Amino acid sequence: MSHMKPMIEMRDVSKWFGAIQVLDGCSLSIAKGDVVVVCGPSGSGKSTLIKAINALEPIQKGDISIDGVHVNASGTDLPRLRSRVGMVFQHFELFPHLSVTDNLTLAQMKVLGRSRDEASARGLKMLDRVGLMPHKDKYPGTLSGGQQQRVAIARALSMDPIVMLFDEPTSALDPEMVGEVLDVMTTLAKDGMTMICVTHEMGFASRVGSRIVFMDVGGRILEDCTRDEFFGNPTARQARTKDFLSKIIKH
């Protein structure tokens, strides 16, 4: 029955920044191969939620587990756990003084203990997967924003993650670069990667997301439903969700 175990489970997760509650009793169960899109207005706790999954943001209440490992348990080896969770941020977080290849290999050698040759082979395979092999010897500053974000995705994939987390990966990009990053993410989803993506890209959500989670200010999950339910049956949604959908679909 081990295959029935959720890949990611959150139970009644709450978090405060001082007196301000930013997550309020959030519960999610995400199966292997799910592509979950988290959307909602600014300030609704979306980024905090995704960062809490691999303990980049500590929580004050509740429980989070990844593949059966309890993220917030005192004995959990967080660096080891994080090595299995690919994280792609809004800003690319590449090392500017290292070549693309070195950016891809450093964490593999330090965290996974791979040899330089092994790490390089894996990294370049993932660089090819995102369509950037010709740029392997360049430095991040010479690449476009979209290319840098694709390198960041390749770096995360080089660690052989069991799940990928995306925190608004296209929001810092010029509009013409958004598509190239979403195309890579779409391919990952089709290949069966378990993904959680915080994004405002509703076209991507409606095409690729298997589930849509809608959050509102105060860090509450108002909706957790299939893509078809979310976009195709708006009358069944809560009033706040209907309001959000009416604004984004109009524009």
UniProtKB/TrEMBL annotation:
Q: Which keywords does the record carry?
A: Amino-acid transport, ATP-binding, Cell inner membrane, Cell membrane, Membrane, Nucleotide-binding, Transport
Q: Does the keyword Protein transport apply?
A: no
| One GO MF term | ABC-type amino acid transporter activity
Q: Where is the ABC transporter domain?
A: 8-243
Places the protein is found: Cell membrane
Under Gene3D superfamilies, the record lists: P-loop containing nucleotide triphosphate hydrolases
Question: Which InterPro entries has this protein been placed in?
Answer: AAA+_ATPase (IPR003593), ABC_ATPase_HisP-typ (IPR030679), ABC_transporter-like_ATP-bd (IPR003439), ABC_transporter-like_CS (IPR017871), MetN_ABC_transporter-like (IPR050086), P-loop_NTPase (IPR027417)
The way this protein sits in the membrane is described as: Peripheral membrane protein
Primary location: membrane
Q: Which domain of life is it from?
A: Bacteria
Pfam families named in the record: ABC_tran (PF00005)
Give me the Gene Ontology terms describing cellular component.
plasma membrane
Which protein family is named in the record? Belongs to the ABC transporter superfamily.
The protein in question is named: L-glutamate ABC transporter ATP-binding protein /L-aspartate ABC transporter ATP-binding protein
